[in-house]
Amino acid sequence: MSTPMRTRASRVVAVAAAVSLLLPAAAAVAAGPQHRPGPGSEHRGGSHVAATLAGRATLSADYLAEGPPSGAAASPGNGRQGPWAGQVIPGFSAMVDNHDGTFWAQPDNGFGAQGNSADFLLRNYLVRPQWDTGRKGSGEIEVLDFIEYNDRNGVLDFDIVNGDTDERLLTGADFDIESVVRAKDGTLWVGEEFGPFLLHFDADGTLLEAPYEFPDGRSPANPYLEQGETPNVAGSRGFEALADGGRYLYPVVEGALADDDEARCRWIYQFDTRRGEYTGKRWAYQTDREVNVIGDAFATGRDSMLLIERDDFEGDQSVTKRVYEIDLGRTDREGFVRKELVVDALRIDNPRGIDAGEGYGLGDTFRLPVQSFETVLFVDRDTLLIGNDNNYPGNDARVPGTPDDTEMALVDLRKQRVTDDGVAVVGHRGASGYRPEHTLAAYETAINQCVDYIEPDVVSTKDGVLVARHENEIGGTTDVAAHPEFADRRTTKTIDGSRITGWFTEDFTLAELRTLRAKERLPQVRPQNTPFDGLYQVPTLDEVLDLARNSRTCAGAPVGVYPETKHPSYFDSVGLSLEEPLVAELRRNGFDHPKAPVIVQSFEVGNLQDLDSMTDVRLGQLVSGSGAPYDLEAADDPRTYADLVTAEGLAEIATYADGIGAEKNVLIPRNADGTLAAPSSVIDDAHAVGLEVHAWTFRRENQFLAADFRSSNDPNGVGDMVGEVQAFLDAGLDGFFTDNPDLGAAAVS
Q1: Cα–chain-centroid distance for residue 105?
Q2: Distance separating alpha carbons of residues 508 and 519, to the nearest angstrom
Q3: CB-based burial of residue 510 (10 Å sphere; 0-12 exposed, 13-18 middle, 19+ buried)?
Q4: Which of 306, 358, 665, 730 is the most buried (most CB within 10 A)?
């Protein structure tokens, strides 16, 4: 169970893109991407791309541009009620760089729906950010000018709000514009969502030709939707993203199509601007979660582009606000384009303290926790620009009760050497001290708090899908008890010799399980986690593996996965063996080789011995401070966990596993007064036979700490977890599980 940091060769995608930004469009798309190892690959040493905040500028959420009143039908929020005496700028959904310090910045349709945006004029604003770099700059976004999109030539053959006027100015009730690129001839191509359509405007905003219809369906707001026709594109899930490939445009459908079998599939299409038609080519992209959407696209080469993938959460609820690079010429084992993480917008270093203290996500780490992260482009060879649509007046990601400003941020991308501290920090069920356990939010938080591994406990659904839950009984970790349709599923079972009453994953299909939401398991201990109850789904193992393989540790290495097979003998007894589907999932995700960042663990012995013959990944024997492995008990084998950690027992473990994961007290017992005693011989004995030693579980609350590291008599008070971890590291520990990864990382720094 070797634990050195693993890396893979990576490149700064900005290099090719930056050159392309300074060249004519035809030359720009000729710069192709360099090939890199695929997901699951790893290399020792090497470098990674680190993201640092270089500048930030904002436009007040309450800024009003000249024009008629807007927002008469807008939903009120955060103390704001329309109509407003001018044109609201509700953030920017797309931008074009003018390479002179200014940008064309395009809002969407206004107030989020066709029915409430008839008084919102569709515009593209010329803006100049005065970047706050932490050393200079006001941090303001100046609005210099705008163009208004219009149909003054009468191209459209359906009714529009201003159809009876000469200018025929377009509004948010006519189109929901979300993306824009500027062609070599200066005309603008705009992707929108009501059709979804591709719209072609001249440089002054006049529509040049009829909208180009999407070939694979219509949305509910499409003006050509026929009576009885079933929309194939969900509302507000059209062309949120559009990449400029020169002759070819690449519109990206924001959400899944209704006829997709895979709910995580998002389609990238190719449109020929010379012929004015779709080419028939399309590529499949897989989101990290079913609910994630595509926010923007930016071409980095002939066949490569950046994509924003985001969720709809904001503030500290956010899970996914990411920029990936994809290469249309490279697909994974399932046929999806491979994606490479460029920036996690929830983890950007802010060493200059730009705007620190002004709201959530503004501190030593900069986060863009807005709901609608919808702008990304390169501004030079090392710098990304990211920005937001603020959905005025409803979003308040930074300061609760205050509408979000429009933000533009510069992110510096630089190569750094990968470092290795030699200690494996494992996010126990994710960062379960800060988010409900076994949710993608908990795993993402753990990654952002610098773990090397995330740990999913693996159980099975009725239809054989592996999901992440601490136990197969889910009454304490989901809201299943609040679902009357599942009341009859409550039952009593014998699991590993114990009678347990509740609801069990093996009695639910995955589709049924998806209707539930996670909740905090220890609300009395961690009341700070309860505001997140009811937000997050139960993730599949596949989703956890995808999150890991598409993530990087703080040191730049691939994030590892440390799955535990829960109750394998029981699941065998009900015909839902865990081993075969686990091995299949690892293989499907590229985690099926000896150097893969994976360790499979179990409290039982037999299933690890079986796995040893089924997979080349590392294995870890879990050891409790009392009792015996259930499969040994069931077979009348007299060995206990205490027997497993004798010198002889450890030598036996070394024949099928690579390490042990031991309860803390097995490694360093406690004295009668609860303080730490001298270390046992287990660490040294394990090392003597080539086993690595990890310990579980380090938690910050006093009740979980040795007495010499408690801060008070309050069992839920925060003690000195860092000190306790360091005591175990001094005894030779190789790694550890923790509910509080930030403190764990601090202990090894």
Answers
A1: 26
A2: 18
A3: middle
A4: 306
User: Cα 454 from chain centroid?
Assistant: 14
Q: Are 595 and 617 in contact (CB under 8 A)?
A: no
Q: Hey, is 511 helix, strand or coil?
A: helix
Residues 6+ apart with CB under 8 A from 462: 505, 506, 507, 508, 509
Determine the straight-line distance between the first and last CA of the chain, rounded to whole angstroms: 22
Residue that the structure tokens 């993402």 belong to: 444
- pLDDT of 43 strictly over 90: no
Choose among 152, 147, 154, 87: nearest CA to 119. Answer: 87
Separation between Cα atoms, residue 338 and residue 102, nearest integer Å: 33
Strand-pair partners of 349: 52, 365
At 299, give phi and psi (nearest 5°): -70, 135
Name every residue whose Cβ is closer than 8 Å to that of residue 572 and which is 6 or more positions away in sequence.
578
* Dihedral in degrees, nearest 10, Cα atoms 674, 679, 682, 683: 120
Q: Where is 683: in which H helix or E strand?
A: helix 682-688
H-helix or E-strand containing 343? strand 337-344
**Orientation of helix 541-549 relative to helix 440-448, angle to 10°:** 20
pLDDT of residue 33: 30
Lowest-pLDDT range of 231-235, 315-319, 416-420, 745-749: 416-420
Q: How far apart are CA 203 and CA 124, in angstroms?
A: 10
How far is it, in rounded angstroms, from Cα 192 to Cα 264?
Answer: 21
Q: What is the DSSP letter of 398?
A: S
78: left (phi over 0), alpha (psi -120 to 50) or beta: left
Taking only the tens place, the pLDDT of each residue in 597-631 is 999 999 999 999 999 999 999 999 999 999 999 99
Name 81's Cβ contacts closer than 8 Å, sequence gap at least 6: none
- Other C-beta atoms within 10 Å of 533: how many? 15
**Could you tell me the two tokens for 721?**
């977890």
Task: Choose among 336, 340, 323: nearest CA to 285.
Answer: 336
Task: Say if residues 670 and 659 touch (Cβ distance below 8 Å).
Answer: no
Contact call for residues 443 and 344 (beta carbons, < 8 A) = no
CA neighbours within 13 Å on the CB side: how many for 503? 23
CB 253 within 8 A of CB 285: no
> What is the reported pLDDT for 416?
86
Peptide bond just before 220 cis, omega within 30 deg: no
Maximum separation of any 2 CA atoms in the chain, in Å: 91
User: Considering only CA atoms, which of 304, 288, 271, 257 is closest in space to residue 191?
Assistant: 271
Token pair for 90 = 């509700």
Q: Are 600 and 588 in contact (CB under 8 A)?
A: no
What is the spatial distance between Cα 679 and Cα 669, in angstroms, rounded to a whole number? 7
Q: Is the pTM of this model over 0.85?
A: yes
Whole-number Cα distances in Å, 73 to 26, 406, 608: 44, 21, 62
Instruction: Say if residues 458 and 578 touch (Cβ distance below 8 Å).
Output: yes
Tokens 């959407």 locate to: 293
